Every structure is written in structure tokens, then in C-alpha cells.
Amino acid sequence: MSVQPVDQLVTRLSIMNDAQYLMEIDHLVWNDNNTPCVLQYGSRQQYLQDHPPGTQLVAIAGEQICGYVGFQYPTHVFTNQHVYDIHIAIHPDYQGKGVGRKLIESLGEFARSQHVRKLTLRVLSTNKEAFQFYKKLGFVENGRLPEEFYINGQYVDDILMTYWL
To answer: What's the CA gap between 165 and 82, in Å, rounded?
Structure first.
């Protein structure tokens, strides 16, 4: 991948043709340090079943997809549809360049247009960089599940965070 400048970064909802690029980002980003279970998709079709078009906002630099933020309602209960539960992944070559911030800002605008009032996420206590990044964006810790996971021989807290729109 040749790294494109991010000064003209564009975001849009995901489309079917994005799946292969998003799978590649997942493969590069997710590991035992930042998720309790690394998901492996055997095919593009399997990926699209879990992440249908329009359930992710993608960031594009030049012609290159460099990150995404996935969003969904936390439950199927109508009274819970003012909340998006999110997860975010940025290609390693684009981390620290403002892509994550742009994605969260763009998702905030989109979410408001859908009458969503808050974004929630979960982050492992071992993922200190991500935790600091979310705090810097304005997410607040609103819960912690101590020793929720046992990963690589250690107990890891699951931190619940919220961003109010």
C-alpha cells in the first residue's frame, strides 16, 4: 500500500466493493492486545453477512481506504435505538494522522441525522493507546468490568466508554 496524503480525507458509508479492503485492515489491526477475540472471515461473503454495506463509515485518502468505524444499535429493542455501539480500525500506515478523529466526527454528524444521541464502545485495559485516544476525543469511561477476559496469561478489564452527541 502506498500511503496517500490525508489532507483531503473523505468519509462515506461503506459499499459492497469495500469489503476486501476492510477485511485487510481488520487483519492488520486486530490482535490479542486490542480485542478479546480476533475474528477471521473465510470469505468476502461471510464478512458482508456480519458487516453489510452501510454499517460502516470508511475514510478514504486519495483512492485508498485507510480506516473505518463500524456502528450498530446495541440491541434490537426500539427503546435502545438512540445509541450506536461502535468499533474503529485504522490501517497501521495511517494511524496518528487524524483519520480516527475524522471518522468519529463524521460518524457524529451522521448519527445526529439518524436521531442517535450517544456513541458507546468497549476497549481493553491493555489497549492504553486506544483508551487515551478515546478520552482525547471526548469519550468518558462509564463502566469497567474487572478481569472480564483472560488473554495471554493475564486478566484484562473491559472498559465501557460513551461519547454524547
So the answer is: 10
